[in-house]
Amino acid sequence: MTLHESLVLPLQDLRATAKAPGLSLRSKLAHSLAKTLRPALPSALCLAGVMLCTWVGFHFDQGFAFTGFLYLVPVVFAAMYGGFWQATLVSIGAATCLNYFFIPPVFSLENSPENWIALGAFEFTALVISRMSLREQLRTKEAIAGRRDMERLYQTSRRILLLDSSDEPGTLVPSLIQEIFELKGVLLFDALSGKTYRSGEVLHGMEQLTRAANTLGADTFDPESRTRYCVLRFATQPVGGLALSGSEISEPAASALASLAGVALEHFRTLQRESRAQAARQAEQLRTSVLDALAHQFKTPLTAARAASSGLLAAGGLSDLQTELVTVIDRQATKLDDLASRLLGAAKLDTADFKPQREPLLFSRLVGAAIQRIDQATDRDRFHIYAPSEEVAILADRELVLTSIAQLLDNALKYSEPGSPIDVVVAVINAEVVLTVRNKGLVVAAKDRERVFERFYRAPETQDLPAGTGLGLSIVKRIVEAHHGRVWAKGEANYGTLFSISLPAARGC
């Protein structure tokens, strides 16, 4: 504290105390005087201790050596509780008393070497003890501040965990941090959403500096505005920034707050993703349940319609027009019956106790059987099968795998250029047999190649084409996974799309 501050600040305190309501003037003056003199209390008490030591040494007729060591006691206490400068004052008093009362000639002040040695010893002791005391005081303050920060961090984390999952944390976390840590202003920047949230007084340029901290990935401190800028991290990746203004908050506490804010934002995003995923699952489940119910309801009437149309055609005696109309009815009833069977089959695949009936099969023969199911001969002629001379068998359910192959062939016909060839390749790769259907035409984008196997998903490239049921490729995936295999799509630029099925090869077959 400077001389000006030591003179001016007590006067300011005295004026402020005199204006305080509810106190008499005498009480106010006494309170102000006590507050002003309190810092000088250690040196005053230690000077009194010097006088006591002088009396003890003089009364018991002790010499220079004993009394000199005795003077160290008030010097040490002054250094511990008053600091170096108060200890210096006490040291000068002790050296003066030692010179006057105990160094011959007594009762006179002489410029003797013993006096300077004593003063040097006192000063050295004061310096060492005051530095040690100051260091311990700083450690104590740091420990108290650390404990206070831990309590505040615990309170902050607890209240963040108790936030309503429906409330966006970006609007609540800044005000929560400002309230608990008694800050002037808090600004939170969410880099993933690009949103900025604030609470309290936000200084000019604080938002830009917070964004810069996120970009640079480094924490900074502005001593002029007493603002600390921290990077929000989640799994070591920067996800935003946090600015804390108006308090000397420690760097570890600020980093912990940034971590809490990052976790809160990521937790909210995770809950949102789970909520959307759950809503999507419920919508799919509802849609599937409706389709399954419709399939069950349609199955019996369609079977009766097919039997009636087939019976009319077999009975004969119809005119050409009647035969043509009955043939159309029979063909469309067959398609609807096949669709109902596929819907029921998809529901069967979702049951927990479903187990495929496995037997040794060859992919090439299954492809041939699937091609024969195609109505138009011109479409059947577009397929070209390439298989090794010694083909390896697979252990699979014939009807299920045949259904999956037929679906891939139907997709190839639907989304390829009219009349273009379609290649079906069978290959053995390691311990797997791979079937690939390659057609020229539509190329599925890379971002959609996983999603095309989801139920009811249609790639944007197919929006203008006739819609199917949205179940075909999802059924293929479920069938293949039930056989512990894999299915995937791959695009060939400027050509078309490849769909591949990989199933484990049968051992010993």
Note down, in words, how this protein is organized:
It is built from 14 helices and 12 strands. It has 509 residues and is an alpha+beta fold. It folds into 4 domains: 3-138, no CATH class; 163-269, Beta-Lactamase (2-Layer Sandwich), CATH 3.30.450.40; 275-349; 359-504, Histidine kinase-like ATPase, C-terminal domain (Heat Shock Protein 90, 2-Layer Sandwich), CATH 3.30.565.10. The strands form 3 sheets. Strands 2-1-5-4-3 form a 5-stranded antiparallel sheet, sandwiched between helices. A hairpin with a 4-residue loop joins β3 and β4 (227-234). The protein is rod-shaped, with a radius of gyration of 45 Å.
Radius of gyration: 45 Å
The CATH topology assignment of the largest domain is Heat Shock Protein 90
Taking the sheet with the most strands, its summary is: 5 strands, antiparallel
CATH superfamily of the largest domain: Histidine kinase-like ATPase, C-terminal domain
Structural class: alpha+beta
Helix content: 55-70%
Distance between the termini: 96 Å
Key words describing this protein structure:
509 residues; alpha+beta; Beta-Lactamase; five-stranded antiparallel sheet; five-stranded mixed sheet; 15% strand
SSE topology sketch:
Layout: H1 3-19, H2 25-37, H3 41-59, H4 64-82, H5 84-101, H6 113-161, H7 169-181, E1 185-190, E2 195-200, H8 206-216, E3 220-222, E4 227-234, E5 237-245, H9 251-315, H10 320-349, E6 359-361, H11 363-372, H12 377-380, E7 383-386, E8 394-396, H13 398-414, E9 422-429, E10 432-440, H14 472-482, E11 486-492, E12 496-504
Parallel strand pairs: 7-9
Antiparallel strand pairs: 1-2, 1-5, 3-4, 4-5, 6-8, 9-10, 10-12, 11-12
Helix pairs in contact: 1-2, 3-4, 3-5, 4-5, 4-6, 5-6, 6-7, 6-9, 7-9, 9-10, 10-14, 11-13, 13-14
